[in-house]
Amino acid sequence: MPELLEQYRAVTPPGTIESLRQLGRRLEGTRMLHVNSTRYGGGVAEMLHRLLPLFEELGIRTRWEVLTGSDVFYHTTKSFHNALQGTSQHITKAMFDEYLEINRENAKHLNFDADVCMIHDPQPAALIGSRPPEARWLWRCHIDVSTPQPAVWQFLRPFVSQYDAAIVSLPKFARRLPVPQFIVYPSIDPLSDKNRELMQEEIASLLEKLGVPTDKPILLQVSRFDRFKDPLGVVAAYRIVKQSHDCRLVLAGGTATDDPEGAAVLAEVQEAAGQDPDVHFLLLPPTANLEINALQRAATIILQKSVREGFGLTVTEAMWKGKPVIGGDTGGITVQLIHGYTGYTVNSPAGAAFYIKRLLNEPERIDAIGHQAKEFVRNRFLVTRHVQDYLGIMIHLARGTA
Q1: How far, in Å, CA of 315 to CA of 254, rounded?
Q2: CATH of domain 5-187+382-399
Q3: Is the N or C terminus of the chain more exposed, i.e. has fewer CB atoms within 10 Å?
Q4: Per-residue pLDDT at 284
């Protein structure tokens, strides 16, 4: 089997592999550490699983540590997540204290022996107080912090300000900070089980196991059951479309170990869907990558009707499969879906229903937008470009020219 990087040559833009090797030679032997709050579930953990082997192949010695916490801590950081994305939350002094205590306890046993440490999202942000001398620490924020609840941002800002730099996913997510900030788009791995090519027989077999018939057009949303993903709005859009087009709706999601709200949201959406036999709920484990791949390839139209979004990698995944995507007009979705060219952005269930019906009425438009979407991802949102961006930032920090 060819070395890992060579396997990407056929799917990446020309010159990508050579560029990565050139950058990697400048950092060979560097020790890199990543810290987040979960090893499974959610886009951050998924990206780390794919990024780390590429860093290793480029000669960068890479480790991954995971924060552990109490139920109160995870409820607190979920409230932080919601508040940073603009939703009003009531966070008590006891919750702030628990956040700090869990970070202090983790700092006692986590191994911070690395030249570069990347801390992901708010959960472990307070670990900065344990930075070893001479190490470079980066705070990587994957969520939309453009309009945060002031009390939560004022609590976190002093920690973030101690980092050597911050990395956000979009320019509008940058905050006023005394440290350099970099823009790095997230990415997908085109060779992973979730994104690699599948034979039609494999797709059919997987859908049969999931209990999803293919006798009607399939509308699909893949996401956690999270209010920011607006699954209730997806059901509302489907009901409008169903009045004129016979189709199925599949809501495929799961849970992450750091998200305690998922079960309550799922119950709300199931109640809204009622007993409609053409609405399918799939509770998938974090390892269900082939199943998600098959669902996305079998779908006619894919939705990601988020009302707030950091980036939206499920949009990227769907575009890579050559599918038209209808997404919320928010966050990183707006960078991916060029309205009318690589997909459509909407602000309401009625808007989503309008474009679903338009696509169902014009199959040739489905094919054209799907093709344009895939090439857009090839040139902008693959994991090889993601590694390239991180390498560039590390070189700048090592030279003290950030």
Answers
A1: 17
A2: 3.40.50.2000
A3: N
A4: 92
Domain limits, the chain: 5-187+382-399, 200-380
**Tokens standing for 376?**
């857009």
The residue type of 78 is K
When pLDDT is cut at 50, 70 and 90, the band that residue 257 belongs to is low
For 18, the token pair is 């050579």
Measured distance CA(185)–CA(338) in Å, rounded:
16
Q: From residue 38, how far is each of 21, 104, 229, 318, 330 by CA, in Å?
A: 30, 18, 20, 24, 25
Q: Angle 48-250-293 (CA atoms, 0-180°, nearest 5)? A: 40
Kindly tell me the sign of the dihedral angle through the C-alpha atoms of 219, 329, 314, 12.
Answer: positive
DSSP for 179-220 reads S-EEE----B-TTSTTTS---HHHHHHHHHHHT---SS-EEE
Q: Do domains 5-187+382-399 and 200-380 have the same CATH topology?
A: yes
Enclosing H/E stretch for 19: helix 16-27
Are 257 and 41 a contacting pair, CB within 8 Å?
A: yes
Q: What superfamily in CATH does domain 200-380 come from?
A: Glycogen Phosphorylase B; (3.40.50.2000)
Phi, psi of 182 (to 5 degrees): -120, 150
- DSSP tag of 147: S
Q: How far apart are the first and last CA of the chain?
A: 38
pLDDT for position 80: 95
Alpha-carbon gap, residue 108 to 105, rounded angstroms: 5
| Concatenated DSSP letters of 288-348 | -HHHHHHHHHH-SEEEE--SS-S--HHHHHHHHTT--EEEESSTTHHHH--BTTTBEEESS
What tokens appear for 67 in the block? 């924060």
- Residue spans of alpha helices (H) in 161-261: 200-210, 231-242
Residue 201 Cα distances to 105, 112, 287, 294, 392, angstroms = 50, 47, 21, 10, 42
